[in-house]
Structures are given as structure tokens and as C-alpha cells.
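for the recovery benchmark. C-alpha cells below, seq after
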């Protein structure tokens, strides 16, 4: 710690920090633009000026930029001295000479960092009357609006997009006072993290295009803490609602998980909530019925002579799955996972429980000094993890900077060292990945070959680990190179997951982690859906066992919870199962093929309308809360299930959460993920509405001039009101970021222990699984993959905008879907006499035609594999590892 003096008062601050960060951490209102806690210091805007004094005798001092000045013991500075206040006022006046006077029509208005800093600096009168510089705007795709005339040239956008996120198509053009931030031509921004420009930009240059379509001011959005539903990482989000419609999703800071940033799928995939495919009424035999009638029919169905089976879901909450499990009985509960995925998740849970290797948070991932990725294209399977891995690759340059006495927040100086030092990242994947640009070495192969490389690396690290037979010289040399780099690391990280649909790959990843000598070794797995890990912890039988239960007549009715089973098993097999069942009850929020087969269909609330607990890939349980009440008769899935239980004590969500915690030792801590519904601040519930929220009478005047009563929420600590306190609540319950003078998202620094660090009171969520024990080596090593002449193996490849079920229903995401095609190795394409754009006919080995589709030549795809985008509806009949035949299609056979 260092003791510094600010305007005559002593303060203790972190040594090695910059002065701006230290002042903000102490609660001082010091204006800034170019600095950002995640991006470091650039010194571009000159707005954070302070006076630094040489010693106690110095009364004049000198002007310095706080973001570029390291704190030092006995430092004396002034924030409020008149010369520095005048400098900041003059500086912002110059910055504003070209800024338009368009706050009333600017979508950033009311949550604009530029507005906050202008008011904070005292610049309230415009003297400049000359002509303003003007620019043409660009079409940057379905996610981002562009209004360059609002730019103040802080350089945050390109520093995030290019330097932090690894983008290449957003650049700065021009010089001096006439710079332009954009693309070389119109077109969608290519980075999967482009949406963060909306929050990184301190003005209205980059705004949310999906929000523009149904815009409302920040103070008119009702908000609640939530968790992203689009992958297994559990990023924290803050959805906003107006008039019963979800309007946008923004990042909610969690120091251990997503920090300041979201991926574009998490930010823009919310469109499914407002989709015309929403199920809004109960249906019985395709006819609308009342909620009361549906309850009665549901209750009678459960009284049948034969047992009813329940099929759970990895996108439903722990509470909803537990309610279904309780309703049908443990022996009749099935996880609702495709059998291979079921096996892989069980293996991952076993490794996390008993493997003895720590599963890191995303913050800990960023601290790794060597990384091995086995079998994952992380950008597509777990996007926010990829952004963290990109930061981990920089750690060697930070270490080199430290040896040269360059502080880590001095961004430009550290980045100049990146060509001299970079932490090793090794990627073994099926084909090229979006992280290859930071990789020290890459390997392409089938899942078997990737696993064999992993086993070889483990053997190179520890000779007692089993070694693969007949490994090629090139692979053996690569394994030795990777092993040597990992062995030297202090915080090595192994990344794997379920994308390859290979248990061998997961076991090889564990062997490598087990073989590493470092005491701070970390092992993380990606999982497909938002509650995949939570469902696996709960446990249950396989889908095939469910099919057998119905097929053999041991049960004749099935309840399917938030799960389109056609995405998991072949259509004909599922058709037989659903036709055999006497009664099919589906509880879901969106129309899908499974819902279309339901005898009784019950409308489920989405994440923005209900509450629940999800467990992310790290094993962290987190709560999400309803932003607005579901429109009757839509209910949370857990409410439909508990409503038909006899003498149920779980009429309230907290009681259901407690029962779930009591039933499973690994889930015992979920009751600590967030305070219960009885939590209040000074006797009042927490408001979902900001204190400037527009009145309810005006909102509903077109229906009735009488003011409607506020909805009552007995299930959460939140009120559908603006009355109450949000300044002194636990982080898990913080609905909106606001502090006096800080209306933009930069207000988060008022809620952190230190800027860029953990939240006051701790980051949301509670870890359920901690590393313990050890497991023996895995030694069942597969033989090398041999392509078979005349047949190809189907290999689904995840895609950030094409593989996730819910986001596919978002119009903005739909515009970014990958090209509808299959991928072939160039040698295979030559064998088939096809080129990119040609159509091929794909058939089973029995000659049954599956699909006629265009081809894309993928140079990095191994021979014998047929790459498809997992999750796209057209590919649902093509399952992982299935063998197919391919031939060039006739002109008539083209789609």
C-alpha cells in the first residue's frame, strides 16, 4: 500500500496503480474518457488532469494526467485546485466543438458517459458557433448503429475491438482532429464481441441497433439481475423491459465471470422472448383451454394406473427440473440429453468432484501463463471464455514489462512488448479456430487424433501416464514441445469440452492436467447449455432408457420440460416414442417440433419472466430474477409443476430452492446464491424501476385512464416499483447501475472494491464443487483415425450464431447465421469432383437420402470428415460420428 495526499487529506491506495484508478476507487469524481479498467491507460483525451506537487513546500505544482501517473508513497496531488479545474473545463470544451447538440434524439442520452463528464466538469455553456466537422455513417450490420459525428476521438473502440478482442475490420482513419473510426467499407462487424462497443464507447457513436427498433430511455426500462441463457458460462446480464416487451440486454458486471464484456449472442440473442413463436396459452389436443382446465387435466393424468415419466432439460432451472423429478419420482426422471452428451457430462462432473484439479472462473483463466485447448473452437462453443483466453496470451508480455519496470496498466508500452513475449497457447482442434492468431502452435485432427495427442503430452510430462501406440514422429515432436512449455508454466490451463462428442478427448485433457507439476494447474470444460452442469449434478437416467420405459409399456405418459427432443435424437426414433406414449405433456416457451406433438401444451415463462438457479461450467450457482411478470396464463415451469402436486409445500420459489438444496449434497450451497424473497432494505423491497421511471398511468392510458395496481411479487426480493433503495443491496440483487453523477455504465466503479476488481460484498454466485482427491490415469487410448474410402464421418461444429436453440429465434442473430453448407477437405472434394458452391447429395450407408446441399472447401478439415454446423434445423437428422456417403448432385437435385 502507498499513502498519498489528495487535497490535503491522506489516503491509503494500492501501490503500483495509476492515480486515476486510485481516485475512482476512493470515490472521487474525476472525469475521464479514454481510460477503461479493462483496457489500461492511453493518455489520449487529457481529461483526467490533476495537479501534482513536488513536496510540501511546492505550492504551484505541475499538471499531470492521472491515468498516466503511477501512485507513489507520499505523493501530493490536487483534484480541486482552480488551475486544474479550468484545464479540464477548457479541454472538454474543445472536445465538444464538433460534437452535435443532439442529446434529445441520441439513444445514449440519459446513460451517456460524455454527458456525465461534461456536467461533472462544469461545461454547461457552448461558446463555439463555427461549423462542425461532419462524417458519413456506415452500415455495420444487424447489431450496431454508427453515428460518427458524435465521436470525441477517445480511441476506446479500436483499443477494445482490435487490441483486446482481436478484431481486424474496425480501424481508425485520418489524423489530428479529423479521425474516423469504422470499416474500410460498409458491412457487418466480424468480431463476435462487437456489441461491447455499445458500452465501451463513452458517447453515442456505437449504439444497439436491436434496441433502436423498440427504443426507450434507460430510466423507463424495468430491470432485474439475470444470467445469460445462451451457453454454459453463466455470464451476468441486465435485461430491460418496457410495456411487457424485452427491449435490450446489457452486461452486468461480475468480477469472477464476465467482467465488463459479453459476446454478441448473449447481448443480441434475446429476440426469442418477443418472438411470434411464443406459446402464450395452454392447449389440449391443439385447442386453447383455460389455465384452470389445464391444471385439472394435468392432475387427472398423473392419477393414471401406470407411472408418468419426466424428461428434464439443460436449459431449465434447477428448481424446475427438481420439481419435475419430485412430481414423477426419482426412478421416472430422465435428463433429456442425447446419450453421448449424457456420458460426457457425467464424466466432467466426476472429474470436477474427484479429479483434484481446480476449475477456474473466467477471471482466473485470464491469469494463466500457458494454455492447451483440446478439441474446442472456444469462440463458438463458449465465446466469453475465448475472450479471456486471448487475455491470458498476453501474460508473458506483462511479465517482461515488469522486468523492465513498466506497469501493467501502461497499455501502449506493454503491447509494444507482445512481439517479444507471448504466453504459449496451443490449440488441437478439428479445423481452424478463431483463436489461431494467438496460438504458438496448432494441430488439426479427428477427435481420436486429438485425444491421442493429449495422451502423448501427458506421457511426455509424466512417464507413468499411458502413451498412445504408433504415434507419428511429427505428433510426438509436437507433444514434446507442448509438454515442455506447459511444464515451465506456473499457472497452466487445460481447456476441453463436449464439442467433439468424444469421451477420449475429455479423459486426455484430465491426464494432461494430472501430469503437470505446477501446484496451480487448472482444468476447465465447456458445456453446451446454460444449466447442463446443474442437470448433470442432479442426475437421472438416459433418453434411451425413457424410450424403453414407454416402449415396453412400463409407463404410458411423459412430461417434457423445456426440451425440443428433435434436436437430440433422430426424428424417426422420436416419432415412434411420442406416438407410443398415451399422453404427451410439453411445458415450453417456444413453438418447436416437440411442442407440435404435444397432447397438452403448457406455456412456460422465459428467463425474463421467471426466477431460478443455473450452474455454469465452473460449478458456480447463480440466480436470475423476473424482469417483468408473465402474462396470464403463462407461468414459470416450476409453477405449472408444483400446482398439480398434492399438499405441496413448495408454493413459493424459496421453499423449492431449499428442498432442492436438501436433496443433493452438491447443491446444498444454492440457497446462498442470493438472498430470499423476504430480503428488504430498510423495510422495502428492491425497485426494478429507476427513480426517474415514467408513471404507470401514462403507460396504460390507451387502455384505461385509471391507474392499474402494481403487480405483487411474492417470489423475489424485488418490487415492480421505483420505490426503494438500490445503493445498498447485495451484488446478486443489484438491478441497475447508477450513482449520483454517474448515469452511464461507468458507474460500476462506484460499486467495486477497487476499479476493475471485485464488487463490494462479493461477486454474485456461489461455487458448488471444489477440487478434491485424485483419479487414476485414463488408459483406454483410441487407435488413430483412418478415413474409409466411400464414406465420411459427420462432425458437427459449433457456431456462435447457428448452434444455440433460443438465439436462433432472434431476428438480428438470424442475419448472422453461417452459410448453409457442408465442409469438405480439398482432397475429399477432389475425389468427389466437387468445388466450393457445388451441391452434393448426402445419404446414409443404407442409401437413404438425407440432404442435398452446397459444399465449402475447408483447407484445415481432416480427410474423411464432413463438417456441419451443429444445431441448425436442417442438420438435425445428421448426428455426430454418423457415417454417410456423398456424391455430386445433379443440377435437378439442387435445393
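predicted aa per position
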Amino acid at each position: 500500500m502507498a499513502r498519498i495526499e489528495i487535497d490535503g487529506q491522506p489516503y491509503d491506495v494500492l501501490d503500483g496503480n495509476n492515480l486515476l484508478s486510485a481516485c475512482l476507487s476512493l470515490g472521487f469524481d474525476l472525469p475521464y474518457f479514454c481510460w477503461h479498467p479493462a483496457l489500461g491507460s492511453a493518455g489520449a483525451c487529457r481529461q483526467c488532469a490533476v495537479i501534482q506537487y513536488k513536496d510540501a513546500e511546492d505550492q504551484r505544482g505541475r499538471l499531470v494526467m492521472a491515468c498516466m501517473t503511477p501512485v507513489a508513497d507520499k505523493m501530493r496531488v490536487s483534484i480541486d485546485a482552480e488551475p486544474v479545474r479550468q484545464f479540464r473545463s477548457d479541454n472538454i470544451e474543445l472536445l465538444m466543438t464538433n460534437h452535435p447538440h443532439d442529446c434529445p434524439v441520441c439513444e445514449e442520452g440519459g446513460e451517456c458517459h460524455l454527458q456525465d463528464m461534461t456536467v461533472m466538469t462544469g461545461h454547461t455553456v457552448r461558446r463555439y458557433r463555427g461549423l462542425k466537422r461532419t462524417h458519413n455513417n456506415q452500415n455495420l450490420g444487424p447489431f450496431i448503429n454508427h453515428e460518427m459525428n458524435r465521436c470525441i476521438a477517445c480511441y476506446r473502440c479500436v483499443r477494445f475491438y482490435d487490441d483486446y478482442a482481436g478484431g481486424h475490420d474496425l480501424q481508425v482513419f485520418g489524423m489530428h482532429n479529423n479521425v474516423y473510426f469504422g470499416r474500410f467499407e460498409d458491412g457487418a462487424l466480424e468480431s463476435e464481441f462487437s456489441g461491447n462497443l455499445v458500452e465501451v464507447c463513452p458517447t453515442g457513436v456505437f449504439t444497439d441497433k436491436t434496441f433502436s427498433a423498440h427504443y426507450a430511455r434507460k430510466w423507463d426500462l424495468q430491470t432485474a439481475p439475470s444470467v445469460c441463457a445462451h451457453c454454459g458460462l453463466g455470464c451476468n446480464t441486465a435485461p430491460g423491459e418496457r410495456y411487457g416487451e424485452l427491449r435490450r440486454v446489457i452486461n452486468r458486471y461480475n468480477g469472477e465471470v464476465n467482467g465488463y464484456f459479453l459476446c454478441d449472442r448473449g447481448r443480441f440473442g434475446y429476440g426469442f422472448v418477443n418472438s411470434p413463436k411464443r406459446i402464450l396459452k395452454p392447449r389440449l389436443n391443439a385447442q386453447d383451454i383455460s389455465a384452470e382446465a389445464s391444471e385439472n387435466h394435468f392432475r387427472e393424468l398423473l392419477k393414471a394406473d401406470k407411472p408418468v415419466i419426466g424428461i428434464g432439460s439443460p436449459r431449465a432451472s434447477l428448481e424446475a427440473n427438481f420439481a419435475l423429478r419430485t412430481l414423477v419420482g426419482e426412478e421416472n426422471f430422465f435428463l433429456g440429453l442425447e446419450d453421448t452428451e449424457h456420458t460426457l457430462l457425467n464424466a466432467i462432473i466426476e472429474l470436477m468432484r474427484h479429479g483434484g484439479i481446480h476449475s477456474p472462473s473466467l477471471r482466473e483463466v485470464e491469469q494463466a501463463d500457458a494454455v492447451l485447448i483440446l478439441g474446442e473452437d472456444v469462440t463458438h462453443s463458449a465465446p466469453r471464455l475465448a475472450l479471456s483466453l486471448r487475455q491470458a496470451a498476453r501474460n508473458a508480455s506483462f511479465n517482461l514489462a515488469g522486468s523492465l519496470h513498466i506497469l501493467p496498466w501502461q497499455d501502449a508500452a506493454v503491447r509494444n512488448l507482445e512481439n517479444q513475449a507471448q504466453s504459449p497457447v496451443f490449440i488441437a482442434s478439428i479445423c481452424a479456430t478463431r483463436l489461431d492468431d494467438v496460438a504458438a502452435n496448432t494441430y488439426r485432427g479427428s477427435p481420436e487424433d486429438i485425444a491421442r495427442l493429449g495422451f502423448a503430452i501427458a506421457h511426455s510430462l509424466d512417464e507413468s501416464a499411458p502413451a498412445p501406440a504408433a504415434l507419428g514422429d511429427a505428433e510426438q515432436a509436437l507433444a514434446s514441445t507442448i509438454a515442455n512449455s506447459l511444464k515451465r508454466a506456473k499457472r497452466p490451463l487445460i481447456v476441453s469440452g463436449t464439442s467433439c462428442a468424444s469421451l477420449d478427448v475429455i479423459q486426455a485433457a484430465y491426464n494432461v492436467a494430472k501430469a503437470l507439476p505446477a501446484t496451480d494447474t487448472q482444468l476447465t470444460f465447456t458445456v453446451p447449455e446454460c444449466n447442463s452442469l446443474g442437470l448433470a449434478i442432479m442426475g437421472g437416467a438416459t433418453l434411451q432408457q425413457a424410450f424403453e420405459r414407454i416402449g415396453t409399456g412400463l409407463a404410458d405418459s411423459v412430461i417434457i420440460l423445456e426440451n425440443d427432443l428433435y434436436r437430440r435424437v433422430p426424428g424417426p426414433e422420436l416419432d415412434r416414442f411420442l406416438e407410443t406414449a398415451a399422453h404427451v405433456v410439453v411445458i415450453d416457451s417456444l413453438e418447436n417440433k416437440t411442442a407440435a406433438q404435444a397432447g397438452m401444451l403448457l406455456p412456460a415463462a422465459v428467463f425474463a419472466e421467471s426466477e431460478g438457479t443455473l450452474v455454469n461450467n465452473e460449478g458456480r450457482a447463480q440466480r436470475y430474477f423476473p424482469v417483468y411478470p408473465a402474462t396470464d396464463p403463462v407461468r414459470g415451469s416450476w409453477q405449472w409443476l408444483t400446482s398439480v402436486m398434492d399438499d405441496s409445500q413448495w408454493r413459493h420459489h424459496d421453499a423449492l430452492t431449499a428442498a432442492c438444496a436438501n436433496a443433493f449434497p452438491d447443491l446444498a450451497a444454492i440457497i446462498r446464491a442470493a438472498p430470499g424473497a423476504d430480503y428488504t432494505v430498510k423495510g422495502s423491497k428492491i425497485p426494478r424501476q429507476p427513480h426517474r421511471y415514467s408513471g404507470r398511468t401514462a403507460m396504460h392510458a390507451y387502455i384505461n385512464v385509471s391507474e392499474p395496481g402494481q403487480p405483487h411479487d411474492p417470489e423475489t426480493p424485488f418490487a415492480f416499483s421505483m420505490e426503494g433503495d438500490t445503493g445498498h443491496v447485495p451484488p446478486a440483487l443489484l438491478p441497475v447501475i447508477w450513482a449520483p453523477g454517474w448515469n452511464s455504465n461507468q458507474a460500476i466503479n462506484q460499486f467495486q472494491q477497487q476499479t476493475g476488481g471485485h464488487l463490494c460484498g462479493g461477486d454474485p454466485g456461489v461455487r458448488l464443487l471444489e477440487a478434491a482427491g485424485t483419479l487414476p490415469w485414463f488408459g483406454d487410448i483410441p487407435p488413430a483415425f483412418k478415413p474409409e474410402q466411400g464414406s465420411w464421418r459427420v462432425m458437427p461444429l459449433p457456431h456462435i450464431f447457428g448452434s444455440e436453440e433460443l438465439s436462433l429465434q432472434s431476428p438480428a442473430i438470424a442475419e448472422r447465421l453461417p452459410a448453409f453448407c457442408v465442409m469438405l477437405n480439398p482432397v475429399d472434394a477432389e475425389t468427389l469432383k466437387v468445388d466450393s458452391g457445388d451441391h452434393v447429395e448426402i445419404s446414409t450407408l443404407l442409401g437413404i437420402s438425407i440432404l442435398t446441399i452446397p459444399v465449402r472447401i475447408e483447407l484445415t478439415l481432416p480427410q474423411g470428415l464432413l463438417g456441419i454446423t451443429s444445431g441448425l434445423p436442417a442438420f438435425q437428422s445428421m448426428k455426430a460420428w454418423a457415417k454417410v456417403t456423398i456424391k455430386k448432385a445433379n443440377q435437378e437435385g439442387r435445393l
